[in-house]
Amino acid sequence: MKGIIFTEFLDLVEDTFGLEMVDQIISESELPSEGAYTAIGTYSFSEMLQLIQNLSKHTKIPVDDLLLTYGEHFFSVIETNYAGLLATYNDPIEMLSSIENHIHVEVQKIYPDAELPTFIVQEKTATTLIMVYKSNRAMHHFGLGLMNKTFEHFNSSAEIILEKIKDDGTEVKFIITKH
Questions:
Q1: pLDDT in tens, 125-159
Q2: For 86-133, how does the pLDDT look when each residue is reduced to its tens digit (9 = 90+)?
Q3: DSSP code at position 42
Q4: Hey, which CATH number is domain 68-178, 3.40.50.1240, 3.40.50.300, 3.10.450.50, 3.90.1520.10?
Q5: 131 exposed, middle or buried (CB, 10 Å; 0-12, 13-18, 19+)?
Q6: Phi, psi of 157 (to 5 degrees)
Q7: Helix H segments across the chain?
Q8: Largest Cα–Cα distance in the chain?
Q9: At what angle are helices 63-81 and 140-153 packed, to 10 degrees?
Q10: Nearest 5°: phi and psi at 135?
């Protein structure tokens, strides 16, 4: 998992819960990196999982809710650092349906060793999108947060239904209806 995911997560934790919380979740986790991350480094997903689980333990906020909030936060990173990529789209359905064939291709150019989830579009119209998320990491709520902010970015709204195909969250169907 790319370091930018870790650095931005810890920045969000610090901004929301304070530096003491960052220190606490790092010290309570067994991290080969010892919590020292660089944006371009690559780290084990197990480190992220430990950090999120420890944050959940201390804040009493469910892991999925933390991932949703983090996904929404991370969209601002995309807006700031990759505005040109966002500018190539005029519609949230178009953007979301191109995750696999365009956005992830661009991400791989920047981070060649990034391990990205797969998004399979099953159905697409002007107002609906059904796609399946597949990953060995159950971070679908992070994706949901990014989707929420995608619609907000385009001054639009949608109902997004998440259906777990696999109980562990490694395969999830998103049913999106644009309003």
A1: 999 999 999 998 888 999 999 999 999 999 999 99
A2: 899 999 999 999 988 878 887 778 777 777 888 999 999 999 999 999
A3: B
A4: 3.90.1520.10
A5: buried
A6: -140, 165
A7: 3-17, 19-27, 45-59, 63-81, 83-87, 92-97, 104-110, 140-153
A8: 48
A9: 50
A10: -160, 155
Rounded to 5 degrees, what are φ and ψ at 78?
-65, -45
Domain ranges for the chain, please list them. Answer: 3-61, 68-178
CA 114 to chain centre: 13
CA distance 97 to 122: 10
Phi, then psi, of 32 in degrees rounded to 5? -55, -30
Q: Are 8 and 73 in contact (CB under 8 A)?
A: yes
Name the residue type at position 103.
I
Q: What is the CB-side half-sphere exposure of residue 170 using CA atoms within 13 A?
A: 4
CB 117 within 8 A of CB 134: yes
Q: How far apart are CA 96 and CA 115, in angstroms?
A: 18
The reported pTM is 0.89
Question: How far is 119 from 43, CA to CA, in rounded Å?
Answer: 23
